[in-house]
Design a protein that fits this description.
Helix content is 31%, strand content 22%. The chain has 168 residues and is α/β, with parallel strands linked by helices. The chain has a seven-stranded mixed β-sheet with strand order 3-2-1-4-5-7-6, with helices on both faces. Helix 1 runs parallel beside helix 2. The longest helix is centred in the middle third of the chain and has 11 residues. The chain is globular, with a radius of gyration of 15 Å.
Length: 168
């Protein structure tokens, strides 16, 4: 199976600085850091329950999820800039046009995805990549990702594991 990080790896060309918004256990982040030894990344996630959105986080054990993230990023943590904040608050900590890419995989409802794209697109340098996960046409699993992405971008590339991307 091709995972989202495999698809993202194919779209990237020797990135130096990136960000993942919605890191959870850090599997995507850690894979990319291992695949690109010259890469450093912002890890953006509050690792706490979030109000609103389309998904119910009440059953999630965020302490355990954070421990898994810590374990998964062992050996690459020196290249991680951890921003334990909500997406838009974290975006304020990152300079405009400084990132080679951003991967958005946080809350999946329309408003959250639209807000994340608007907050993070200016952070990507010209020629860089803005991308995300859960571009899923199944109405049961599509909480608004497709609608938000296509409202902002006329055209996007889609890939394996419900990924999407747009060159800036």
């Amino acid at each position: 199976m091709m995972w989202r990080w495999h698809q993202l790896e194919q779209w990237l060309d020797n990135p130096k600085l990136g960000a993942e918004v919605g890191v959870k256990e850090g599997r995507c982040l850690s894979h990319l850091l291992r695949a690109f030894p010259g890469l450093s990344m912002y890890a953006v996630d509050p690792w706490e329950s979030q109000a609103g959105g389309a998904e119910d986080y009440s059953e999630w054990d965020f302490d355990k999820i954070y421990q898994e993230y810590t374990s998964n990023t062992q050996g690459v943590r020196a290249r991680v800039i951890e921003l334990r904040k909500y997406s838009t608050e974290a975006a304020e900590c990152v300079a405009d046009a400084s990132l080679d890419f951003v991967f958005i995989d946080a809350q999946h409802d329309y408003e959250s995805v639209k807000t994340d794209i608007q907050a993070w697109a200016p952070k990507v340098r010209p020629g860089g990549l803005i991308s995300g996960h859960d571009y899923d046409p199944d109405p049961v699993r599509n909480y608004g990702v497709i609608e938000a992405v296509t409202e902002i971008f006329d055209e996007v590339t889609t890939g394996a594991n419900f990924t999407w991307c747009k060159r800036i």
